[in-house]
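Forum: Protein Structure Q&A
Topic: Joint prediction for protein chains with partners

I've read a bunch of threads here and the consensus seems to be that you should model interacting components together rather than docking separate models afterwards. I'd like to see that in practice. Below is the full input, 894 residues plus whatever partners are listed. Could one of the regulars post the assembled result?
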Amino acid sequence: MRRVKRFVLSCLICILALPALADIKIQEVTSEGGITAWLVEDHSIPFTAVELRFRGGTSLDMPGKRGAVNLMTGLLEEGAGELQAQDYARALENLAASMGYDADRDTVSISAQFLSENRAEAVELMRMTLQEPRFDQDALDRVRAQVIAGLRSEEKDPNDIANRAFSETVFGDHPYGTSGRGNLDSVAELTRQDIFDAYEAVFARDRLYVGVVGDITPEALGEMLDTLLLDLPAEGGVIPGEASVTLNEGIQIIDYDTPQSVALFGQPGLDREDPRFFAAFILNQILGGGSFDSRLMTEVREKRGLTYGVYSYLVPRDLAAVYMGSFASANEKMAEAVDVVRSEWNRIASEGVTAEELQDAKTYLTGAYPLRFDGNGRIASILAGMQIDGLPLTYVETRNDKVNAVTLDEANAVAAELYDPSRLQFVIVGRPEGISSTQ
Amino acid sequence: MAANGGFRMIRRIACMMATVWGLAHPAYANDTPVTTFTLSNGMDVVVVEDHRAPVVQQMVWYRAGSADEPVGQSGVAHFLEHLLFKATETLEAGELSATVAANGGRDNAFTSYDYTAYFQRIASDRLELVMRMESDRMVNIRLTEGDILTEREVILEERNQRTDSDPRALFREQMNAVQYLNHRYGQPVIGWRHEMETLDLEDALSFYSKYYAPNNAILVISGDVNPDEVKTLAETYYGVIPANPDLPKVRERSAEPPQTAARRVAFEDARVAQPYVQRSYLAPERDSGAQEKAAALYLLSELLGGGSTSYLANALQFDRQVAVYSAAFYSGTSLDDTTFTFLVVPAQDVTLEEAETALDETIAAFLEAGIDEAQLERIKLQLRASEVYERDNVDRIANRYGRALTSGLTVEDIQAWPQILQSVTADEIIAVAQEVLNKETSVTGWMTRAEEVPQ
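Posted by a regular:
Agreed with the consensus. Here's the joint model:
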């Protein structure tokens, strides 16, 4: 086990204050080895949160190996270096450290927290995890059984059934068209070599984003970055191209014996980089963005009691953008709820929003933004996410201005372009009454 | 607006934040300033300071939950929680949430067996605004028949979504109902459907006028505030509300009789994908001034089933490989007797009977072998370190205070708890295990897939 013990100069490119968060300053730190991280230095509590993200995620699965990246990620906590699974877990317990691992369609992330007084040992354990994972066959078989148990549950869960059907309809043969957790057959056949292949595809420096918050200096962070990450390969697996989005007005019903149907709906969305994104973001807040007083909540829940909750959300993924929503309603109420959602989709497309709604949404979104920066782990995650989205370090300063800059005319022009009832598709799982599939 | 059904999903127990060898830093606990006082009308106030960001959370906790409901009205505590978002004398229906949102904040509420709580999280210079609205709805709601009819549909949809659509939730509901012979913990927080369907305006208002009063409430403020400023505001908005002189002196709870028969639950549902076995035992909760037994039970649950280094995981998942998942749960913060629970998800081709036998054999072997002192020390070290990490999230500290204070504990009990956990010995853990893991108070449940019925 090699330890890098060099003193590393770090260059501070920029320091910015968050709006309304005078004490939080984001620095960009580049290590001697050339690895960049965003840091919020805060010595008030003696621990540090680290967020590492690798772009690519489960979309890096090779053909026929669906679920490999997910299973590989689950195996990261099952031993590294000389330590087998339980010894590794005990070492982590002894080291005042926690590590979380997650894989989604676009990224694999590692979220770590460790106390300052044994940072060196915790970083060494992280280094082993990243650079010397064991992927022992017995651990592989044990975690595979857990994944398969989860997949079996998904087969019977109306929400998962709806998600899988929706993805397949929208994205077809693209990796986005299937679940990153794989299926019973593909996961059963994954070999130890497949796990190593997935590991090599995922972990590389050309797709790495780092956020760090807490009790660490830029110098110490520079050293940590080189220790942890410099020996990773320069390049990883090829990330697939963009997915085409197929969505057309209609309803697909999947029969399932349950008292309450689950509905997913969606139409094509827009990219994070689209100049209309901020207008769309505000429009969605008004339509179904999660407040109790959104149009959808008001019409479907508060006035008619048709659901416990209804939401809509922009989903700008790396390789495709959709605009989605979801709710659940008793089988006898589903038809009416679908009608109400459709009519709200038509209304916002044809009438746009009012000046008052726009102002309320702006006040909410700009007021809520600083409230996100609460806690070292949360902030580290936000810092990594901002880099993945290609946002500049200045974004935290300008973001609320961009929200406020959207005028009513702009918002309503975007509403007329964006909302497209002729491409609004529903997938419903259950036994809804008075409604049937259109295909 | 949620019914916290008290029970826990199948999940890995939250990874305990770990620790340092030989760490002895009781000072950690004191680094987060907690201030408490009581208003003249009897309302308790807790302030947890964190000045790193200009954010505040206000919570008002009522010592009233589903276990305080009248017989025949299961779900009324949670129903009322929903109705508190309707109109008051000065606020339109929905105006409180809309005002919080228009100020960039968010708000919600939750109900459990022993409490109902309401909260807002907002920029710290808006504390007065949310205090004014929260104090208003403590005594001034104005409900209409229309509110009742629509909101009752909403809570029925919530039950559909949380319980009726999820066989695991239905199984837990049945297990709980069988565990308690006489206590209201046996009724689901969200309510039984047939009783929810009949809840009316009078039921809601009767619960409201009985329990919603300052002398039955705790105000918990966390974030960027100073206690003097909170005190002034609290006196202005809450201090002027008269105490309810008719508030019951003691929580009206029907006690459990001695439990003398091991019970079994066989739950079948066509939607079950992954069968599992669950075993619960009636267990003592944290009592004010006497938390030692609960502390020992908590450490027992961690030793037996607190993650991949635990005794159950080692025996069932690593050694014998008869389970894909195993865990033990114990939550001692409860007004009355709680449960100690095991869960085993068998490996493929292992029957529930075999899994249950393996569980019993493993518990017996654990008691026979005695406590692994190194493991016990690791768990205690993790608990000490968790106090450092907890300072990063004062809302969690606020939540801990709210739950404990509505569950019969005092501020002194809450502050003594970490030290009590540290002082538990191996012998005490074995003793409490032998006392509590006792067949006569147990319920064993099998959740299986219903056979397809030929059409």
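Chain B touches chain A through 69 residues (CB under 8 Å).
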